[in-house]
Design brief:
The structure holds two protein chains of two kinds. Helix content of chain A is 0%, strand content 56%. Chain A is built from no helices and eleven strands. In chain A, a hairpin with a 3-residue loop joins strand 9 and strand 10. In chain B, strands 2, 4, 5, 6, 9, 10 and 11 form a seven-stranded mixed beta sheet that branches. Chain B has a four-stranded antiparallel beta sheet with strand order 1-3-8-7, with no helix packed on it. In chain B, strand 4 and strand 5 form a beta hairpin. By secondary structure, chain B is mainly β. Classes of the chains: A mainly beta, B mainly beta. Chains A and B meet through strand 4, strand 5, strand 9 and strand 10 of A and strand 5 and strand 10 of B.
């Protein structure tokens, strides 16, 4: 069946360092969404990418959708302690699948 | 800002008992979803609901699960005979259209003993 994997599973960074999480699907996706889940919280929608090769920016966050529409990445520049949480990608292939998530810890 | 609400926030039940989890989606949304998240794991899609019927369901959503929109506001998930492995956080979400932003509720933490 369809799988959506994310790497790394965990990432610890010093405040001010950059962070990237990668999302890879076993099948082509019609779109990709990114969510952030704070510890003990619920997923909160960040962005949706639809077009092949699309790049979108939200302040320090840069999202990219691969040319083959099977992978995506989220890059955070100069992390802050407020960036702590688990970042999930979610994509629609045969069904809507969440990725395995990357848990980000920011050390002040 | 409108938000999805869920009740109860926590539910403890005995194995084999039926539970009903309740959700009030955002009022002008047309698509409703249930997800579950076992502690420390990823979010898993269960079912989507549109126009008073299931539009999509995952392999997890077997015969012990059912969904209903009993009135104009509530959206419920029923688990007929709970098992230990049903212990998880259950999130309801809603969206205006099928590929639009999904807004998640705060979740119901279900513990099956």
């Amino acid at each position: 069946g369809q799988q959506v994997m994310q790497i790394p599973q965990y990432q610890h960074v010093q405040e001010g360092e950059d962070f990237t999480t990668y999302c890879n699907s076993s099948t082509t996706l019609s779109n990709i969404q990114w969510y952030k889940q704070r510890p003990g919280g619920h997923p909160v929608f960040l962005i949706q990418l639809v077009k092949s090769g699309e790049v979108k920016k939200q302040k320090r966050l840069t999202f990219q959708f691969g040319e083959a529409k099977k992978n995506s990445s989220l890059h955070i520049t100069a992390t802050q302690t407020t960036d702590v949480g688990t970042y999930f990608c979610a994509g629609r292939g045969n069904q809507f699948y969440f990725g395995t998530g990357t848990s980000l810890t920011v050390i002040p | 800002e409108p938000e999805v609400t869920q009740t109860p926030s926590h539910q403890v039940t005995q194995m084999g008992q039926e539970v009903i989890l309740r959700c009030v989606p955002i009022s002008n949304h047309l698509y409703f979803y249930w997800y579950r998240q076992i502690l420390g794991q990823k979010v898993e899609f269960l079912v989507s609901f549109y126009n008073n019927e299931i539009s999509e369901k995952s392999e997890i959503f077997d015969d012990q699960f059912s969904v209903e929109r009993p009135d104009g506001s509530n959206f419920t998930l029923k688990i007929r005979s709970t098992k230990l492995e049903d212990s998880a956080m259950y999130f309801c979400a809603s969206s205006w259209a099928v590929r639009e932003t999904q807004y998640f509720g705060p979740g119901t933490r279900l513990l099956v003993l």
